[in-house]
Fold these 2 entries.
Entry 1:
Amino acid sequence: MKTLGSRVLLIVGILLLGAIPASAQVLAPFSTWVNNRGSILNVGWVAVDGAFGGTYTNNAPGFQCHSTYPVNGIVNPTGAITFRVDFWDCNTVTTWTGRVAGRRMPTKWVLIYNGRRMTGADYFTRQ
Ligand code: BTN
């Protein structure tokens, strides 16, 4: 006969096993996302805990550093996402926060340039 403790452990184990791959599934590895400014987020690896890495190509008009940079971020099983790019040669670091919902990802960003702060929004669509 199973004790109450072992049943609880079994249920917790099943829930954990279900939750861990879900964070990876919400953001597909090796997926490409383009925003409303023409910039490209290429997601490479996505770890089981939701951490991910890839590249970000900035094509936004009105900004400098139209080049490709490493990107790092984290996504959780509900789709909440944050990622960061260091545009090192422009003295700019930008952090996006948003939500992955299928093939759409609305985000807001905070950009720090030489200690000055700018905010905005980018809408990414999976290609
Ligand atoms: C700079 O011009 O200082 C560096 C490039 C910054 C690009 C910004 S980050 C937020 C916005 N979304 C983009 O895709 N590009 C611009």
Note: The mean pLDDT is 89.
Entry 2:
Amino acid sequence: MSLSEVKLLELPKILDPRGNLSFLQNNDQLPFAVQRVYWIYDVPGGDFRGGHAYRSLQEVIISLSGSFDVVLSDGYEEKKITLNRSYYGLYVPKMIWRQLENFSTNALAFIAADQPYSEQDYIRDFEAFKQTV
Ligand code: TYD
């Protein structure tokens, strides 16, 4: 898998003077059917989350509030994407190392995934990830 497979998806944005609305729908905005969602919040300043890759899981990461950086690697190259708008979803395919960092106060990271939680699907050691690649 290469970093070129990572995509920043622009989600629908229904502008309204009462407040804006965005949404995700299986196989429409998302290139997969959602099996699980989870969210990360109350991250202390300077901490990071998610230093790992998934063997087969794919996901979309959205900053519902505040901002954070997603650092991605395919084992050869690295890139950093800042998420700070709730109408962008970062599509991360399987076998891409990703770390979430530089969380702002009150940042809320929302992740939609195509599989249930499975520890066996994680690669948590970067050297092991590079070997597997
Ligand atoms: P983990 O995915 O390692 O967190 P992060 O990648 O954000 O650093 O998950 C942390 C813990 O939470 C881990 O012990 C497993 C548990 N967990 C679940 O039980 N279900 C889930 O859907 C997720 C994402 C984590």
Note: The longest helix spans residues 126-132.
